[in-house]
Amino acid sequence: MSAAAHAVSPAASLTSAGGTNARIRVTVNGQAVVAEIEPRTLLVHFLREVLGLTGTHIGCDTSHCGACTVLLDGKAVKSCTVLAVQTDGREVRTVESLEVGGKLSPVQEAFIECHGLQCGFCTPGMMMSATALLAKTANPTEAEIRDAIRGNLCRCTGYVNIVKAIQSAGQKMQSAAGTGGKA
Ligand code: FES
Ligand code: FES
Q1: Does 27 have pLDDT greater than 60?
Q2: How distant, in Å, are the alpha carbons of 24, 26, 30, 114, 135 from that of 41?
Q3: Pairing of strands 22-28, 91-93
Q4: Is the CB of 155 under 6 A from ligand 2?
Q5: pLDDT tens for residues 34-47?
Q6: Distance 129 CA to ligand 2 centre (A)
Q7: Domain that holds residue 160
Q8: Residue 1: pLDDT above 90?
Q9: What gap in Å lies between CA 182 and CA 102, rounded to an integer?
Q10: Which of 12, 41, 42, 115 could make a disulfide contact with 37, Cβ separation 3.0–4.6 Å?
Q11: Whole-prediction pTM
């Protein structure tokens, strides 16, 4: 994604007929974005419909499923509960940021290896919650993992392999760092 590609254009922005749009400047997956949007635009709609980042899913309209989880200034948030204007001047990371230069992140690798997904609909949100957890807790306990993903619902896996995947990702990150320290 280039900044230019996601600088606002009239065709791509979510605009209101009344001309009461808000201008935001936000860093999304490391790229600066400027956009004109309706103030009521939810972050999840901004990401999917304006920026085309459809890896962030919408699984409910009750703020329960967590499929829409992204990182806002490093913290996992449900992007259906955040207004896009609230991200002005801040940093957003979506699931698209996990793979870099064709290399999957440890979390992505571990979800594959541990069969941490079946249909995959919850997986982007799960991986973003896992990424936030492992950034602050390198070797989380099962209880810590289950607490970190308590806002992410999965209808397929029964969660066991998701927990294993997150534990495995933590181990991978520690091995890569050559320490027992922070992920
Ligand atoms: S779409 Fe379900 S919690 Fe956001
Ligand atoms: S893998 Fe299907 S909802 Fe989680």
Answers
A1: yes
A2: 12, 14, 21, 37, 29
A3: parallel
A4: yes
A5: 999 999 999 999 99
A6: 15
A7: 106-177
A8: no
A9: 24
A10: 41
A11: 0.89
Q: What is the pLDDT of residue 10?
A: 38
For ligand 2, say whether the CB of 156 is within 6 Å of any of its atoms. Answer: yes
Distance CA 9, CA 66 (A): 30
Residue 171 predicted with pLDDT over 90: yes
Q: CB under 8 Å to 143, separation ≥6 — which residues?
A: none
Cα–Cα distance, 48 to 179 (Å, whole number) = 37
Between helix 106-113 and helix 123-136 the angle, nearest 10°, is: 120
Q: Which residues pair with 69 in a beta bridge?
A: 78
Q: Considering the chain, what percentage of its residues have pLDDT values greater than 90?
A: 85
Q: Is the CB–ligand 2 distance for residue 157 below 6 Å?
A: yes
Same domain, 31 and 80: yes
Which ligand lies nearest to the CA atom of residue 42 in the structure?
1
Cβ atoms 164, 113 nearer than 8 A: no
Whose CA is closest to atom 2 on ligand 2?
119
183 within domain boundaries: no
On whether both 92 and 116 belong to a single domain, the answer is no
- Contact in structure between 44 and 25 (CB atoms under 8 Å): no
- Give the total number of structural domains in the chain: 2
CA of 78 to the centre of ligand 2 (A): 17
- Reading the block at residue 19, the tokens are 């001309």
